[in-house]
Protein 1
Amino acid sequence: MNKNRLEAFSDGVMAIIITIMVLELKVPHGTELKDIQPLVPTFFAYVLSFIYVGIYWNNHHHLFQSVSHVNGAILWANLFLLFCLSLLPFATGWMGENHLDELPVFLYGLVLFMACIAWWILVEIIIREKSNSKTAEKLKCDPKIRESAAIYLVATIVALFFPIVSCVIYALVALLWFIPDKRMEKAVKEVSGEEE
Amino acid sequence: MNKNRLEAFSDGVMAIIITIMVLELKVPHGTELKDIQPLVPTFFAYVLSFIYVGIYWNNHHHLFQSVSHVNGAILWANLFLLFCLSLLPFATGWMGENHLDELPVFLYGLVLFMACIAWWILVEIIIREKSNSKTAEKLKCDPKIRESAAIYLVATIVALFFPIVSCVIYALVALLWFIPDKRMEKAVKEVSGEEE
Amino acid sequence: MNKNRLEAFSDGVMAIIITIMVLELKVPHGTELKDIQPLVPTFFAYVLSFIYVGIYWNNHHHLFQSVSHVNGAILWANLFLLFCLSLLPFATGWMGENHLDELPVFLYGLVLFMACIAWWILVEIIIREKSNSKTAEKLKCDPKIRESAAIYLVATIVALFFPIVSCVIYALVALLWFIPDKRMEKAVKEVSGEEE
Amino acid sequence: MNKNRLEAFSDGVMAIIITIMVLELKVPHGTELKDIQPLVPTFFAYVLSFIYVGIYWNNHHHLFQSVSHVNGAILWANLFLLFCLSLLPFATGWMGENHLDELPVFLYGLVLFMACIAWWILVEIIIREKSNSKTAEKLKCDPKIRESAAIYLVATIVALFFPIVSCVIYALVALLWFIPDKRMEKAVKEVSGEEE
C-alpha cells in the first residue's frame, strides 16, 4: 500500500487545523487598542498551538521518510493522532478566551498528552513493522516521547493550581521537541547514507 | 484520464470535512466543568463521525488502488459520495447539540444511509469498468455494503422511537466496517500478488 | 514551470470552497421538522453550488491535461477563476437564507457570470500558448462558454423580476455543462490518441 | 529531505487562508442593496488579501523550484511565513468591518510587514544553502524585498493618521510584486537554460 495518500491526507488535516485555529481570533467590533487587548492571550495560545502542529507536521514528515509501506494499523494510528490534534483548536480557543484559567489549561495539557500518546503509538507500530530497522532502532532509543508524556501529565495536574506554570511547561516541552529535530534528521541521514 | 487529481481532491474534501466538524464544538464562555458538560454529546457525535470519515477515506484509498483509469461516471459518483459526506458535519452538529433527540438522530442515519448508497454506486461503477476484474470480483462478493444500507434504514426508523438505540447501531456498523478493512486489504494484496 | 502545484493548489481551494458552503447550513436549535424547514432553500442552493464547483473542478481537470507548461498569465487567470468561485459560498448563503429573493438571486447569477468569464479567459490564454494545438482547436470550437455567459447575463436581469425563473435557468446551464464533459473527454482522447 | 511535502503543506495552508477570508463576508439578513453596502470595504479588503496570498503562493512556487533539498531551517522559516500569512484573515476582517479605521489598517500593514520579513528570512536561508548558486545570486540582487519592508513600515505609521493613504500604498506594493514575477521567471529560466 502506498504512503503518498496517507501523507497527503495528513498534510491536509494538519494544514486545516493550523489555519482554523486562527478563526478563534474573533474580529472585535471596536477599533481601539482596548478592543484588541482581550485577544492577547488567545493570540499567544494560537502561537503555541501553531508551533505544536508545526512540530508534529515536521516529525511526521521525518517519520514517514523511514516508512516504505503502510498498513491498516499505521493508517488508524495516524488517524488517531490527527483526531487528537483536531481537538487543539477547541482547547486553544477555550484557553485563550478565558485568560489561562485552571480548567482550560488542564484540558489543553490533556490534549497535548493525548497527542503525545498517539504519536508514541504510531512510532511503536512503525518500529514493530520494522520496515527500516536502523531508523527504528534510533527512534527506539529516543526517550523524548516518554519524557514528554510524563511532563504533560504533571503539567495538567499543576494546571489545576498554577495554570501559568503549566503554560510555561507546555512552551518548554515545545522547545525540547523543536531542538531534537536535528538529532533525528542526523539519524535518518546516517541510515540513508549507510544504505546507499 | 489520471486518477491522481481525483484522489487529491477527495483527500482534500475529506480532510476538511473531518476538521470542520470540530468547529461544532463551540468554545464555552465559562470555565467550570458544568460549562463543558453540554458539549459531551457533541464530542461523542464528533468521535463517531470522525471514525466514519476515517473509514470512508480508508476504503476510498483501497478502492482506488484497484482503479487505473478514471472516467466521467467515476468522477461524478465520487463527487456524489463527497456530497453525502459533506452533510455529516451538519448532521453531527444537530445531533450533538440536541442531546440525541429523535429527528436529529434520524437525519444523521439518513446521511449515513445516503453515503452508503453513494459508496455502493461508486463501487458498482468501478466494477462495471472492469479495470481490474479480480479485485472487482472480490468487491462484488462483499455483502457488507448491502447489509449496512439495510441496517441504516432500520436504524433511521428506530431513531424516531428510541434514538439511543440507533446511535448504538451506528457505532456497531462503524465497527463492522472497521474490521473488514483487513479482508479487502488481503484481497487487494492477493490480486497484486497474482499480477506480479 | 511545473503544473503540478497549480493543480494541487486549485484542488485545495475548490475542495475548501465546496466544503465551507455546508457551513451556511446553520445547525438549528430546535429539533422539530419546522426548525429545519427554513433550511430547505439553503440546502437546494448548496446542492446547486456543489454541482457548479464539481463541474468547474471536472473541467479544470480536463483542461490542464492539455497543458504541459504553466506561465505567469495562466497562474493569474487561474487565480482569478478561484477568486470568482470563492464568492460562491457567500452568494449561496445569501440566496438560501432569503428564500430566493430578487437581489440575492441576482448576485448569485453575477458570481456565476464572473466565474464563466474567468473560465473563458483561462481557456483563451491556454489556447494562445498553443501548448497543444489540437486540443486548443477543439476547445476553440466549443461555443458553450460564450452561450453560458450570455444566458447568465439574461438570468441575472430576469432575477430582478422573477428570481425563481433565474434559479431554474442556473440549474439548466449546470445541466448543459454536465453533459458536454463527454464531448471534451472525447476530444482529449482523440488528441492523445493521435499523438501516441 | 524531500521538498514535495513542504510544497503540498504550504499549498494547503495558503489555499485555506485564501478561502476562509471569504467567511469574513458575513451573509447579511436583509435583501436590499443597503444590507449589502456595509460589506463593500470588507470585499475590497478581501480582494487585496486574495491578491497578496496569490503573490506569495506564486513566488513560493518560483522560489522552491530553485530548491532541491529541504532542511530544518527552511522548514521552520517556511512555517513562520505561513504563520504570518495566517494572520491575514483576521487583519482583513478587522480592517473591512471597521471601514478602514486607523488601528485596523495599522495592524494590516504590520501583518504585511511581518510576512515580508518572513519571506526575506526564507529567501536568505535558501540563498545560504546555495543549493543553486545562480538563482541565489539573482535572488540576492533583487532589492524588492528590502524596499517593500521599508514601504510597509512607513505605511503602518501613515495608517495612524491617514489610513486611506496606507491602503493605497498596500495596493501599490502588491502591484510592485505582481510585475516582477516575470523578472524572476526569466532568471529561473536563464539558470535552468544554462544548466541544461
Protein 2
Amino acid sequence: MHTTVSSATKTVTIGPDQPFCIIGERINPTGRKIFQEQLRAGDMSAVEKDVLDQVAMGATMLDVNMGAPLVDEAELLAKAVTMIQELTDLPLCIDSSVVEALEAGLDAYKGKALVNSITAEDERMELILPLVKRHGAAIIALPNDEFEIPEEPERRLELTKYIVEQATGKYGIPIEDIVIDPLAMPIGADSQMVVRTLKTIELIRDTFDLNMTLGASNVSFGMPDRHALNSVFIPMAMKAGLTSAIMDARTEKIVTAVRAADLMMGNDEWGATWIALHRAKEAAKA
Amino acid sequence: MHTTVSSATKTVTIGPDQPFCIIGERINPTGRKIFQEQLRAGDMSAVEKDVLDQVAMGATMLDVNMGAPLVDEAELLAKAVTMIQELTDLPLCIDSSVVEALEAGLDAYKGKALVNSITAEDERMELILPLVKRHGAAIIALPNDEFEIPEEPERRLELTKYIVEQATGKYGIPIEDIVIDPLAMPIGADSQMVVRTLKTIELIRDTFDLNMTLGASNVSFGMPDRHALNSVFIPMAMKAGLTSAIMDARTEKIVTAVRAADLMMGNDEWGATWIALHRAKEAAKA
C-alpha cells in the first residue's frame, strides 16, 4: 500500500516498494533541557539547526514536537511548523499528545501532514480523527488502549483491526492514510521485546498491508553502543515489513544502514542511490 | 533444529535459538596471490595469522580451504587441518570442491566437522555423502544442480527437498546434520538478488526448520562500501532464518552487527554478551 504525504511543493510516497521513509526525530524537546529553556524564552534557533542537519543527512520527513513544560504548546507548534516550512520542503509529521496543539499545527501546515498519533482508545480517536479528516492528513496509530500496551503481537493485531475499522468506517479516513506504529520498546527491559515488535510488523504487513512507522531509537535505550544497535534493528524491521521510522537522522552510520537495507530489499535499482551516497562521502572527504 | 559440530574438545550448537554461528572465511587462497605462492612454497605462516585473527574477533568456527593452482590440495588440506587444530579449539568447516581433499581433511580432523559442500547433483552426493556418513560429519548443501543455479526461491526449495530426501533416505545422514546454503549472489548483478535469497531462507526455515549458512561476502561483490552492506545483509538474513554464515570474521563492524542482531533476535539474554563486548572494547581502548 502507498501512503502519500506532502509539503506545499513536495510529495513523498511511503510503501514497501519505496526507499525507506526516514522521519527525523530530532525536533523534540523531550530530554533536551537546554532546548526546553530556549523554547520557554522564545528562542527557536535550535530548530533551524536541527532542520538543516537532518535535511543534510537525507531525511525524508521531519517530526515536529514542541511538548515541553511551561510552554504554550499549540502556539509553539504552529510557529515551528511555519518556520520549518520556510526552511525545507520536506513533509512534516506533526507530533503532540495535546489535541489543541495538533489542531494549531495542522492549521499552520501547508500540504498533507502525517499526524502523530492516536491509539485504539475511543476517546482519543473521537477527538483527533475528525481533525485529521478535515485536514486530509494521514495518521499514525498505536495498537494500545486505555487498559494496556499489549505484549502479544496477536493482541496488537486485534487493536490494529479495531483502529482500522473505526478510522475508515466511523471517521471516513482512507485506509492508506493509516500508518501503524507496531510499538518498539527497550530491549534492555526484556530480551523478547524486539522479537515481539518484529512479529507484530509481519502480522500487520501480511494481514493489512498497511504502512508502519515506529520510534526506532527506543529499542536501544539503556544499552551501550546504541548506534550499532539502532543500525541493525531498523534493517531487520525493514525485512519484517516496516516502511518508515521516526529515527536518528543525524548519525551517518544509521542512515547508511537504512540505505544499505533499501538496496537489499530491491528498492534501489542498480544501487544507484548507494553508489551516489558513496561518491558524495568520498567527495566530502577530499 | 540443532546442528552440532565439534573439535576434539569443544562442541558448537547451530540453531535459531543460539547466537549466530560465525564461520571465519579467511583461510582460503582464492583471490590471494601471495598466500597462493606461500602455499606452493610450503609456507603455512599466513594460516597461523588468519587463525589467530579470527579467533581474537570471536569467530565460532573456521572455514579451511586450500584450493590453489599447482598445489597438492589433499596433502595441504590435511596439513592445514592438523596445524589449525593445534592452534585453536574451534570446530572447522572443511571446504573443497575436490573429493580427495575432503577425504584427507576429514581423516586428519579430530571431532565432528562441517563439510563444504554438496549440491543437488546425484554424482556429487554419491561421491561425498558416504564419506560424510563414515566420518559422522555434518554437510553444507547448495540447492543447485547440473542444469542451473535457480533464481526462483520455490525451485531452490524443491532442490532442497530433493537433497534432504536423498541424504537422509539413501545415505543415512541425520536431517539435523544437513545445513542448507540458500545461495547468496552479488546484488550488483541484479537488484532482486537478495530478495530471492531472503525468500529462500524463509521458505526453508518454514518448510524444514533446517539450519542454513551462506557465503555472506558475495552479496556486496563489486559494490562500494562493502563492510556497510555486509553488516546490514547478515542481520536481515538472520531475521529471515539464517543461523550461520561463512563470513568476514576479521572486521569489527560486521561481527558487531551480528552480535547486535543476536540481541534483537532474543538470543542474548539481558544483553550479557553485548555488554561484555562493549566493555572489552572500552578496555582495549584504555
